[in-house]
C-alpha cells in the first residue's frame, strides 16, 4: 500500500444514522477493500510487535473481524467479548450505560487467565463505555488490560475521560467532530 493511502477515503460517513443528529462512521468500506483491510492488520502488527501481549480480546461483532487476523499473525489467543446470553459457559459480566439504556458484556471465565496482559480491541472507540466494560470483565478474571485499540477513534466524544490515562489507547484514524 502506498504512503498516500488514507483510511479516511474508504470509511463511509453516514449522516443521521442510526438516528437524527448522529454521524455514523462505517468501517465496512475497509472490509470490502482488501488493500485497506490488509493495511489495518499490518499497522496493528507494527504497533504491537514489540509489546508484551498475551492475548487479544475483541468486542462483538466488528472487533472480531479485525482481531482474528491480528491474533493469528501475532501467535496469540483471541478472546471473544460478547453481548449477554451469547456464551454457553460460565462467564464474567459487566453492565454499562448506553446513550439509550444499558447493555451487558460477558467473557468465558475459562478464556481469561490471571496475570495475562490483554489488548482490548473494537472497530471504533466513541465514548469508551464498551471498552471500559470489557476491561471490567477481564479484570474480574485477574487479567490486566495492556492497551485499548480501535481502527477509528472519536476523541471529541471524550473516551479518554472514561478510559483514563493509565492504559494506552491507540487508533489508526481519528475524527474530531464536524
Report on the structure:
The structure is a single chain. By secondary structure, the protein is of the alpha/beta class. The chain has a domain at 52-174: 3-Layer(aba) Sandwich (Rossmann fold), CATH 3.40.50.2020. Helices cover 28% and strands 34% of the residues. It contains 5 helices and 9 strands. It has helices at 28-31, 34-48, 62-74, 129-140, 159-163, and strands at 12-15, 23-26, 55-59, 78-83, 91-98, 101-108, 117-125, 144-153, 169-174. Strands 5-6-4-3-7-8-9 form a 7-stranded mixed sheet, with helices on both faces. Helix 2 (34-48) packs across helix 3. The radius of gyration is 16 Å and the shape is globular. The model has no long low-confidence stretch (mean pLDDT 94).
Short description:
The chain has 178 residues and is an alpha/beta fold.
Throw out a few tags for this protein:
single chain, Rossmann fold, 7-stranded mixed sheet, two-stranded antiparallel sheet, 5 helices, 34% strand, globular
Shape: globular
- Total helices: the number is 5
CATH architecture descriptor of the domain at 52-174? 3-Layer(aba) Sandwich
- Tell me the helix content: 25-40%
Overall pLDDT metric: 94
Give the CATH class of the domain at 52-174: Alpha Beta
For the report, how would you describe the main beta sheet?
7 strands, mixed
Order of helices and strands: EEHHEHEEEEHEHE
Give, in spatial order, the strands making up the sheet with the most strands: 5-6-4-3-7-8-9
Please tell me how large the radius of gyration is.
16 Å
Distance between the termini: 28 Å
Q: Report low-confidence residues grouped into runs of 5 or more.
A: none
Strand content: 25-35%
How many extended strands? 9
**What would the CATH topology of the domain at 52-174 be?**
Rossmann fold
Helix-and-strand structural type = alpha/beta
